[in-house]
Amino acid sequence: MSAAEILAADAYGLTADRLIATTAALATLAGVVAGILAMVRPAGSLKPGIALATGLAGTITGILVVALADGGPGTGNGIVGGWAAIVFGLSSATLGALALLRRRRGFLDGGVDHVGADVRGRSS
Predict the structure, then answer these.
(1) Secondary element (H or E) of residue 76
(2) Of the four listed, 26, 39, 88, 107, which is most buried by Cβ atoms within 10 Å?
(3) For the purposes of burial, counting CB atoms within 10 Å of the CB of 40, is it exposed (0-12), middle (13-18) or buried (19 or more)?
(4) Are 8 and 74 in contact (CB under 8 A)?
C-alpha cells in the first residue's frame, strides 16, 4: 500500500476523531430536538434536563475535538463535526435552560400561565 493510498483512506474513511465528533454532533442535535419539544410542550418531563445535559456535554466534546485537531476539514481530525457539536450544543443548552426557566418561573410568559392565572400568586 502506497503513502497516497493511506492518506486517501484517512481523508475519506471514518477515523476515531471523526467518530467522536460525529457522535457529539448527533447527540447535541437530539438535544436540540428535545429542547424544542420542551419549549412547545412545557408540561413536566425530563426533556429540558436532557437538552441541557447533552448540550453541555456536546459543547465540551466539540471544543476538545477542535482544540486537538491537527488540520482543517478533510484531514480526518473531525473538525467539521466538532464545530457542528459546538453550534448544536450551545443551541441545545440554551433551549434546555429556557425550558427549565419557563417551567419553574413562568419566565417566558411573564408569570402568567396559558389559562390566564398568575403562577406567582397575583391576580391578572
Answers:
(1) none
(2) 88
(3) exposed
(4) no
DSSP state of 112: B
Query: Could you give the 3-state DSSP secondary structure of residue 95?
Result: helix
How does the average pLDDT of the chain come out, rounded? 78
Contact between residue 89 and residue 24 where contact means Cβ atoms under 8 Å apart: yes
The amino acid that residue 13 corresponds to is G
Q: Are 111 and 119 in contact (CB under 8 A)?
A: yes
Residue type, 68: L
Q: Which is nearest to 48 in space by CA: 106, 114, 103? A: 103
| Whole-number Cα distances in Å, 18 to 6, 75, 84 | 16, 10, 12
| DSSP letter string, 26-68 | HHHHHHHHHHHHHHH--SS-SHHHHHHHHHHHHHHHHHHHHHH
To 5 degrees, how large is the angle CA 49–CA 21–CA 91? 40
Given a contact cutoff of 8 angstroms between Cβ atoms, the answer to whether 65 and 85 are in contact is yes
Secondary structure element (H or E) that encloses residue 116, with its range: none
Give the pLDDT band (50/70/90) at residue 42: low
